[in-house]
Amino acid sequence: MLQISRLRQKAIFPVALAFTFLLAIPANSEPIKVRTHFNVNTIQGQSGGKINSRVCGFISSKPSQVIEVIERIDYMRVAVSTKGGQPTLLIKGPNGNLCSMKPNPEIAGVWVPGRYSIYVGQRSANSQYNFTLSISQKR
Questions:
Q1: pTM, full prediction
Q2: CATH number of the structural domain 32-136
Q3: How far apart are CA 120 and CA 58, in angstroms?
Q4: Which run of H or of E encompasses 2?
């Protein structure tokens, strides 16, 4: 009986330790909380990924950025710029998915409160480029 409990202790400790480290790993990006009259936010990252979104190019498994809209915003614009490639912009929000695949992708309009996951993708697989994502209320 003593050997079994020691064996359990030896098996449980590494699992608990690994779980602790998993919880300590920071998220891909901290959510940006936005409300009316916020400052412009600019985020740098790398576009593309291995997942075929089926509607908006190839994206990463984790969002490029997450924003949390605290109160209704009558106008907000999310835009992507890259030096190369064919970037896409996919936003998964409380009212469904929005996609822009034009040369300088952007999505603008009224934003209702909720959490939005922003993915900067590429039209083709296995291509990645540095991008700048801007979130602003400028028209």
A1: 0.78
A2: 2.60.120.380
A3: 9
A4: helix 2-24
